[in-house]
Amino acid sequence: xxxxxxxxxxxxxxxxxxxxxxxxxxxxxxxxxxxxxxxxxxxxxxxxxxxxxxxxxxxxxxxxxxxxxxxxxxxxxxxxxxxxxxxxxxxxxxxxxxxxxxxxxxxxxxxxxxxxxxxxxxxxxxxxxxxxxxxxxxxxxxxxxxxxxxxxxxxxxxxxxxxxxxxxxxxxxxxxxxxxxxxxxxxxxxxxxxxxxxxxxxxxxxxxxxxxxxxxxxxxxxxxxxxxxxxxxxxxxxxxxxxxxxxxxxxxxxxxxxxxxxxxxxxxxxxxxxxxxxxxxxxxxxxxxxxxxxxxxxxxxxxxxxxxxxxxxxxxxxxxxxxxxxxxxxxxxxxxxxx
Length: 339
Hints:
- By secondary structure, the chain is of the alpha/beta class.
- It has 2 domains: 1-31; 40-337, Glycosidases (TIM Barrel, Alpha-Beta Barrel), CATH 3.20.20.80.
- Helices cover 46% and strands 16% of the residues.
- It has helices at residues 2-31, 48-53, 58-67, 80-83, 93-104, 134-152, 180-193, 210-213, 242-254, 280-286, 289-302, 312-322, 326-337, and strands at residues 41-45, 73-77, 108-113, 158-163, 198-202, 218-223, 226-229, 233-236, 259-266, 306-310.
- The chain is globular and about 70 Å long.
């Protein structure tokens, strides 16, 4: 009996040591800083569509992003429902203006083209598309992409084309089922029309990046920490910064991947409702200024060369609609220190 008790105690002690070792290892990973003494460039995503949804003067907001924040790297979106409201009739004025304002200030732009775009519901379809078959929709998308590339390729400040937004992420957005063959057809079309690099974006937390890495040598990853989903509700990802670095190194071993950057760093609330339907006190609880700053520190530790900030429209909305300037001012100081 005593021998059995000793054996049980020994096993319990070994288990305790293993658990303790695991937590020490996780703590070690959390404290690894791959961005220490590294020059990191900060950019931002700007959605003129989202700025309108927040009730902002979207042109004023954009000029402030350029001239007050002094952003030098931008990601802009070519929403299909704005480009082609009537089939075969294209309108480019708003995006032309956005690109021209950036070009005047020597701001580099990644332009997102294709059906799937940043901001809910991801697929911003024109109304007329609903009456088409899947094959007709795909052909219409190819025509739209070709028209957009031919129109926008005259802007020298466009440094790369992002084809769709997180196309391999099947659990988010209101979009058709992902068709890998058709996606590769879109990539081939863009490559045939313009020599600039193609970027594919992936979820940092929900994807292994292998699918995108086999198609493009450049991947943009999202970094989200406080999220919401219909299964668990509010959810926090307890991942160390090293998680992204380790994944990058592993994927580079099995693919032609050359570069990973942060295309979307969460710096605004995520909830089950649109921002405009959330009381301001709840917004500030979901993304407090402390969480905001912590996300910046956390992502810098990943050490990727470029980080595109997500939520610039919300910071401006807080500033002009509620007199809350902390978020805007923090981002402004960060960009100033790293420019």
